[in-house]
Amino acid sequence: RAKANGKNQVVVFDAHLRAASEQSLRIESELWLALERGELRLFYQPIVELASGRTVGAEALVRWQHPQRGLLGPADFIDVAESTGLVVPLGGWVLAEAARQLARWDADGLAPMQMAVNVSARQLGGDVLLQQYRSAVDAAGCAPQRLEIELTEHTLVDNVDVNLRLLNRLRDWGVSIAIDDFGTGLSSLAYLKHLPVNKLKIDRSFVDGLPGDAGDHAIVSAAVSMAHALGMQVVAEGVETRAQADVLCGLHASLAQGWLFGRPVDAQAFAQRLRDQDAAQSPLSICTAA
Ligand code: C2E
Ligand code: MG
Ligand code: MG
Ligand code: MG
């Protein structure tokens, strides 16, 4: 292609490539410093029980308070973290901070809940995850049942044999495991019954099409039925509208997460949300509505 377009095209393409790799080199070196300097933050998004509208959990989502570029989301740095292996220490920090935050909220007398943390495939090598998890909950003094881990469907099926051993160890500790972005992995469903998984998070791309898209409706409906048949809870991701939530309620999905209920916010704002809930402001209850 480059040849057909002549020499100038090659030069331009090359310049783009070089700019892209310089950019990722810069992110890599800055991210090391960010970890050392404590520039990473966790934001928390509520996970809501559809029947009651109550917040029963939170997902911890990493952010980078960059000194020049402001607050960055995972899209700006997680790929570089993955490809360089930096996601391993980053993931260790996320587990530790999530456990600490859970303990702080407990100490503040806020409603007990579960915290979900995203774990990268890179953390699954050897005993890294087991060690990171153990030191996170031990240091914070929080019960392992409270800190759930999320693994994407891709991550889970990539190396099922190794993962199975690791996941069984975690399950022995009472750790809840969720499959993230379910439906995007293009994998055989047969593996599901072998994995010690407690929750299935239906990817936002299927929830997007509700209520209009018949195909998305069929996929979400099938995923909910299958999860329930296998004894798993369902979390619908990316719920933005009341109409989507109504469909999910009709399908008996128990949990949901999305902008309709709340965007990811910092710890202080999330605590305020929990306090407002305790003060019995009527939450956005979906399934009990007429
Ligand atoms: P995820 O685990 O599937 O997290 C859900 C993402 O969807 C979050 O994006 C969240 O802000 C976004 N979201 C939630 N509700 C809605 C909604 O109603 N509409 C729309 N349009 N989006 C919604 P975020 O925070 O940018 O994170 C993106 C991805 O980055 C996460 O996807 C996860 O795969 C990864 N990630 C986040 N934190 C970590 C981390 O600590 N470690 C690792 N390894 N990956 C992380
Ligand atoms: Mg997740
Ligand atoms: Mg997801
Ligand atoms: Mg995702």
Automatic annotation (TrEMBL):
It comes from the Bacteria. Residues 24-278 form the EAL domain. This is Diguanylate cyclase/phosphodiesterase. It comes from Leptothrix cholodnii (strain ATCC 51168 / LMG 8142 / SP-6) (Leptothrix discophora (strain SP-6)).
